[in-house]
Amino acid sequence: MSVLFVIGGARSGKSHHAQARMEALPGRLAFIATAQPYDAEMEERIARHQADRGPRWTTLEAPIDLPDAIAHASRSTDGVLVDCLTLWLSNLLLAEHDLDACTKDLQEAAQTCPVPLTLVANEVGLGIVPENALARKFRDEAGRMNQRIAGVADEVVLVAAGLPLTLKGS
């Protein structure tokens, strides 16, 4: 099936665009969340996003094991939305997982997903060079991950100021 990769900055409208694209499809939809509610603000943010989705959506949480969650969700729904890969990468980095191997597993999961799959990520490489080593590593790893996912995606859309710009595909 098709893989759509939606990237953009914080509050760019990328999640809204990705959700709207998925909701244009018929059938049942799965939302795979990678965020972890570490504080009250994040809990509120997650609740707000859940309220924005209607009854067609099933939500799964996959802060670490994203490829398996995609495989699981694709067996019982007609489309899968993952939001967001950048938080997933943060979770992996902080848990000291092999980022290269995890990204390779994600690429394979995307390529073998039998239903339309939309992946959302932040574009974090447009700003200044971070001052600390962990932030620089995160920025560099996010850039590498985004390149690899864009490579397997059928369509890549950059969203800025709520406006989608197609970088690859239709």
From TrEMBL:
Protein's name according to its UniProt entry: Bifunctional adenosylcobalamin biosynthesis protein
Keyword match Nucleotide-binding: yes
Function text: Catalyzes ATP-dependent phosphorylation of adenosylcobinamide and addition of GMP to adenosylcobinamide phosphate.
Domain of life: Bacteria
GO function terms (MF aspect): kinase activity
Record InterPro entries: CobU/CobP, P-loop_NTPase
Pfam families: CobU (PF02283)
Family per similarity comment: Belongs to the CobU/CobP family.
Pathway noted in the entry: Cofactor biosynthesis; adenosylcobalamin biosynthesis; adenosylcobalamin from cob(II)yrinate a,c-diamide: step 5/7; Cofactor biosynthesis; adenosylcobalamin biosynthesis; adenosylcobalamin from cob(II)yrinate a,c-diamide: step 6/7
Catalytic activity: adenosylcob(III)inamide + GTP = adenosylcob(III)inamide phosphate + GDP + H(+); adenosylcob(III)inamide + ATP = adenosylcob(III)inamide phosphate + ADP + H(+); adenosylcob(III)inamide phosphate + GTP + H(+) = adenosylcob(III)inamide-GDP + diphosphate
Alphabetic keyword roster: ATP-binding, Cobalamin biosynthesis, GTP-binding, Kinase, Nucleotide-binding, Transferase
EC number: 2.7.1.156, 2.7.7.62
CDD domains given in the database record: CobU
Primary enzyme class: transferase
